[in-house]
Amino acid sequence: VAKPIQITVALRALFSINNSPQARWGSESSHPVRDATVEIEGTGLSATTGSTGDAKLDVSTLVSGNYVLALTPHKNNLLRNSSEPVNVSDGNTTDTAGTCRYRPLKIRVSFKLSAGSVKLEVLGPQDGVTHGAAFFRMPATLLIDWKPDWVACKHKGPRPKKSAPTMVLVHRTEGSTAGSALDTFIPSPRSITSHYLVDVDGHIIKLVHEDLVANHAGESWWAGTAGLKNASVGIEIVNAGKPFTQQQHDATIRIIRDLMTRYPGITRHNVLGHGEVRVVTQDGAARNLRLVERAGCPGVLFEWKHLEAAGLSSKADPSLFAESQIDAEYGGYFKDKPDGRIHFLTTDGKLLNKQKQPYGVIASLQADLSALGYSINASNGVSVTGEYDDATQAAVDRFRRRYMPGAVPDNMRLYPIFDRATAIALKRVLLDRKQ
Ligand SMILES: [Zn+2]
Fold first, then answer.
1. Angle 389-390-395 (CA atoms, 0-180°, nearest 5)?
2. Sign of the CA dihedral running 334, 340, 341, 342
3. What tens digit of pLDDT does each residue of 377-408 get?
4. The model's pTM
């Protein structure tokens, strides 16, 4: 009888990136994958993970060579439809907060057996999957980072009248790991969460089914509608201030494409940044509809151009409106003053043309911003006042962040510059929204 040669396969949810085994969700031992089956394909050898996430296998009967480790979650932790690239149908409406679901994972390994011992080598995940990675650990231990595609988070129940979502809001987490976001979302006393979380490497984690309301919008207002959590799907992107990765932009595109297929009420014009809709938190009796908070969500580093190119966003399309056409707009203000800028608290009554008549430039600007959907007035969102007040400034700032990449340098403060270039971009987006 051969002496047993034991290997340990340690299954954890680490959310590692870049082939580094560093746990990005707690510690290396804090998120074990329990009750999963580890099988060495074609050998009849298999074991189940215990409460620590470890499975132990005796490989003394094997010969040296390459093998495939097939990992299968317990049936309660298996995705309903594990073939979907975006876990479309896997948002389970009944899982308790914190429940993780996985898709099966295969890892290729090499075993070199000699003199009663084994040398292990990781050859990598099979088929270039992104939802798992394997790392060699001494002695005879494989650490496997099995990334859940579904982590149930708290929600606010079904949408009003079982309505379908009509809007997408893009966010950034302001933390550097998916784990820190999950640790906020899962136990959240105020049920603050989102429907999706996109990690740095583009791995998508679904958190709340789209048929349920996730509390991700705060006090919010767009085009006459308040309380946008009821109408929207939230996508949180892991970002602490470095540039968003190409994989994150790609993953966001995949999610939105899929949402538009399933919910036809979501059009590219209803894909918005959180900062475009986030108004003052209600204090006292009066709700203040000025766009004041979350200017940096998702912030200036999010590259809307990728969504525009994919047909998933409004855009300032130069082919719709030539620069020279601005001369005929805004009462001819930019024809007379190509370098003109509107200053804080200026009113239309002070901006007069050669005939001493008001250009009406501020009222026109307010009407245009309002036609796009932005709140332009703290009291009701829509009243045109002809004054370049703080509510109007905030809407200009949000427009520039979204549609004029590079024009706004950071998320630290407002850059409410209304100039000729902004006016041209505004007219282009207005025309694009009619397409
Ligand atoms: Zn946000």
1. 105
2. negative
3. 999 999 999 999 999 999 999 999 999 999 99
4. 0.94
